[in-house]
Amino acid sequence: MSIASRIASAFAMTHTPGLGNRWSEPPADQVERMKKGFDEGRRQLAASKPDLIIALINDHFDMYTLSNMPALSIAVGTEHFGPPADSEAWLEMKRRSFPGNYDYAMDIYRDSIEAGFDLGRSGSAEFVHNMLMPLRFLRPEMDLPIVPVFMNCFAPPLPRVERAHAFGRALRKTIDRRPERVCLIASGGLSHWPPYPREGRPLKDDLDRIMWEVFNHGSQVRAKYPQARSLVHEREKEMAAERSDLVNAPWDREVLRAMEQGDSKALCVMEHDAIEPVAGSGGSEVLMWAALMGAMNDGPGKTLFYEAVMPWMGGVTVFSYDT
Ligand SMILES: [Fe+2]
Fold this sequence. Notes:
The chain has helices spanning 28-48, 88-91, 102-114, 129-138, 161-177, 206-217, 219-224, 228-242, 249-261, 264-268, 272-279, 286-295; strands spanning 7-13, 52-57, 72-75, 79-82, 96-99, 120-122, 146-151, 182-187, 302-309, 314-321. It is of the alpha/beta class. The chain has one domain (7-321): Protocatechuate 4,5-dioxygenase, Chain B, CATH 3.40.830.10. An 8-stranded mixed sheet has the order 6-3-7-2-8-1-10-9, sandwiched between helices. Helix 3 packs across helix 5 (161-177) and helix 5 packs across helix 12 (286-295). The radius of gyration is 18 Å and the shape is globular. The protein binds fe (ii) ion (FE2).
């Protein structure tokens, strides 16, 4: 398809933790198909020659906590950082800096406020798998400036899906009036069941109690519990071994169908309380997909690949608005 010149390319991608250092777990043919799909996404992004990346992502209590949880926010810093020390091993990456774009980010910030989206503001972002998975698989050079926009997906009440879509439409206006050619990346979803405690429900065990502290106090507590992240991943492995219903492939495929056809109504009618029972608490990361669809004016796109990866307890997909 042909898309406006300011959008060089646009992708949505899941950031399933298994993509880190657990490639030996899925069947070989599935690994093969995923690698081919990522190759194609990487090729498309490189061919589009963007000037920068605007990322629609969510934080997992590394930047924001229950003490300060913006519904929507933007990191305007001239540089961003990641991964944190406790994630270097499983992400197979050394901590480093990434260029930001203060001028572009401030334009999005100002325009969003003018349009009625009262974003929070951060300086430098702290990236973990939310941003580093898309970079690793779609832009391993990690050379492009990044303007990250964050959406609250784990501390209810969450922004409504239709609101995320409307934000995407507003974002597009800034993109269209700026001269740079942009690669848009939405990172998150689709159905998944991260072993996180839920506010207002009893804490079941020690992992719940640790994660609840993390939710409330963020990086200070992560330093106190350096094993917290690996405990979550171990729990995910246990859950994946015990149950086969923790990827909802039909739900994932319905989201992909809606994306392919530009059927924003199908996403915008979704309610978070209804998403959770069928797509897990992680299903609300569909917010970023809805925002992307809004930014692309509900144009059609293409699923490069979708794989329900049972050992990773998640679907893995890359969706592209091919140029
Ligand atoms: Fe996530």
